[in-house]
Design a protein that fits this description.
5-stranded mixed β-sheet; 11 strands
């Protein structure tokens, strides 16, 4: 073999070996962040977290990765929130009603009949108010990264159609493990039963509960619609989801990597919003095709009037009262 060919081959082999060693080293040094979500693998929030992970991996050159644990693999939401606060879980997608136990401003976003429409909600969250709320998380052990849509929650049950506030009296309805949600159901004259999300289907099937309240996708993807044939469009809350990070994980990041996480979270929020809208429409059609009775002609005013005491209680806190007023003023 000519001398120049041997030299060329030697350099080529050296380059290939160097590249392989770099790849192995980079992979070995890649840092993984655990993200928790109680929803199923194909749910929009899980898809959005994975999309966020793809963006972070790309922008960091493979240094940073997110591993998404869906379907309650790391526990129910209440448990994963506590683990995130303690730093055992790095990222968490949760509903604002549940994290309100730790972050007071979240209770305001979960207030019944606060938002006039989904468009009103999105305008609030995408503007200065939303940014201020996300910024308030740090003093409570979390870092707020982005809001995800959660549609409007409505009441469904297996006993009778709810067309008036009298129809809801005495029903045993599952609510999230949240004092605010329990107070709301009590104010309507029903009995709140606090159950983890994963136990609702069994509760409906065994008649432990008569019904629950949730959005269209959750009603259908969990098979609740097979046990509760009456869905009333109360749309009583439009409380969003929120993606939070533990302060422990956040403080371990460089300023540059923090920017990568924030930008990826915001992009994933827009990604999730599109997929949510599509799933919401498909879920409603599936429920209709299955014979679910959808009640739209109910008397909403008594439902709203029943919330007076709840608002009075929350508005004793001047900061909560001010936030409610600001949200109502957003056109």
């Amino acid at each position: 073999m000519p001398v120049y060919s041997r030299a060329y081959l030697s350099r080529t082999v050296a380059i290939v070996v160097a590249l392989l060693l770099t790849a192995v080293t980079t992979n070995a040094l890649a840092r993984e962040f655990r993200a928790a979500d109680t929803q199923s693998e194909d749910y929009p929030t899980v898809q959005a977290l994975r999309y966020m992970g793809q963006l972070i991996e790309e922008k960091s050159g493979g240094r940073l990765k997110i591993v998404v644990f869906h379907s309650r693999q790391l526990g129910e939401e209440k448990e994963t929130i506590e683990q995130t606060r303690a730093g055992a879980i790095d990222l968490n997608r949760t509903n604002v009603a549940l994290i309100g136990t730790f972050v007071p401003a979240m209770n305001v976003l979960a207030m019944p009949f606060l938002f006039r429409s989904i468009e009103h909600l999105q305008k609030v969250l995408d503007g200065p108010i939303g940014n201020e709320i996300l910024g308030s998380f740090e003093s409570f052990g979390f870092v707020g990264l982005a809001f995800y849509d959660s549609g409007a929650r409505s009441i469904y049950n297996s006993v009778r159609p709810i067309r008036s506030i009298a129809d809801i009296k005495g029903l045993r309805l599952r609510v999230q493990q949240s004092e605010l949600m329990s107070d709301m159901i009590k104010a309507l004259g029903a009995e709140p039963i606090e159950l983890p999300y994963g136990q609702v289907r069994t509760g409906l099937a065994t008649k432990l509960i008569d019904g629950a309240e949730n959005n269209w996708p959750s009603f259908v993807t969990t098979d609740h619609y097979k046990y509760a044939g009456f869905y009333t469009l109360t749309e009583h809350t439009m409380s969003p989801e929120v993606v939070v990070m533990s302060r422990k994980a956040w403080e371990s990041l460089s300023p540059e990597d923090r920017k990568i996480f924030r930008e990826a979270a915001l992009q994933s929020s827009r990604f999730m919003r599109e997929r949510w809208k599509d799933l919401e429409e498909r879920s409603r059609r599936q429920a209709e095709a299955a014979g679910v009775t959808i009640v739209t002609d109910f008397d909403r005013r008594p439902f709203e009037a029943a919330m007076t005491a709840i608002y009075a209680k929350v508005q004793r806190d001047p900061s909560a009262a001010e936030l409610i007023e600001r949200i109502r003023k957003v056109d």
